[in-house]
Amino acid sequence: MPYLDDNLLVFTDLDGSLLDHHSYDWQPAQAWLDRLGSAKVPVILTTSKTSAEVATVQKQLQLTHYPFIAENGALIKLPADWPGNSDDVSGHIIGNSYSEIRQTLVSLRQRYDFEFRGFGDVSKQQVMDWTGLSLENAALAMQREASEPLIWFGSDFDLAHFEKCLQAENLSLTRGGRFWHVAGREAGKGSAVHWLTGQYRQQRDQPLVTIGLGDGPNDIGMLNATDYAVVILGHHDHAMPLDNGENVYRTRQHGPQGWKEGLDHFITL
Ligand SMILES: [Mg+2]
């Protein structure tokens, strides 16, 4: 089990993990955030949100001096003082850029008459209706850099064909709640965690110890990519298939209470 003064890296999901599923509150986790802050342990937000959406939360959590992972791992944003970072390169995309993804989607639709609408096809009002977000938050969710959510209106048969076409273009199609997500085939929270851990490893002399915290199926890649995994009790019925070894801890509590419970379990002060 790691000590607080080990060379730790913490990767955490936001919704339903560090943030309460309903209220977005994180107060139960604040004491741990303070402790990690004093010990200079990077806390890396790892989420499906866009970089524009994460930026506000990251500021509120006072974590802006650390990188974060957005768009389900397709995008890694680096702080301005990151070694080797230049002013015009503030991020790392795994897979394809948003404009490349859009071009592929539009040309596949022209060619095969696939019936879908992505965020890039519709108005803010439509995204508000789909998501229940406010106008302001819908605008932030539409500022995409490396993945596209879409709603499929066609048949299952066409969907299978669509997925094959995407694979041939090195893109993946994954199911979220209401949306399908198109991103680079190698993109995912797990690949992003591997990439960023590699970057930290180059910067530090001592061995790193990584801890991941997440509540949903899209966190499994991240939880498999870290040395210790906290599976936070979720508000869903999906299985969270991970080894039940001593490096995996499943919490009894939801959200930020579970977040605290997991770090209490693993990290020795
Ligand atoms: Mg979550």
Automatic annotation (TrEMBL):
Pfam families: Hydrolase_3, S6PP
Positions of the Sucrose phosphatase-like domain: 176-266
GO CC field: cytosol
SUPFAM superfamilies: HAD-like
Enzyme class label: hydrolase
Alphabetical keyword list: Hydrolase, Magnesium, Metal-binding
Top-rank taxon: Bacteria
UniProt EC number: 3.1.3.70
InterPro entries cross-referenced by the UniProt entry: HAD-like_sf, HAD-SF-IIB-MPGP, HAD-SF_hydro_IIB, HAD_sf, SPP-like_dom
Transmembrane residue ranges: none
Gene3D superfamilies xrefs: HAD superfamily/HAD-like, Putative mannosyl-3-phosphoglycerate phosphatase, domain 2
Any single biological process term in GO: mannosylglycerate biosynthetic process
Name the record gives this protein: Mannosyl-3-phosphoglycerate phosphatase-related protein
Species assigned in the record: Rouxiella aceris
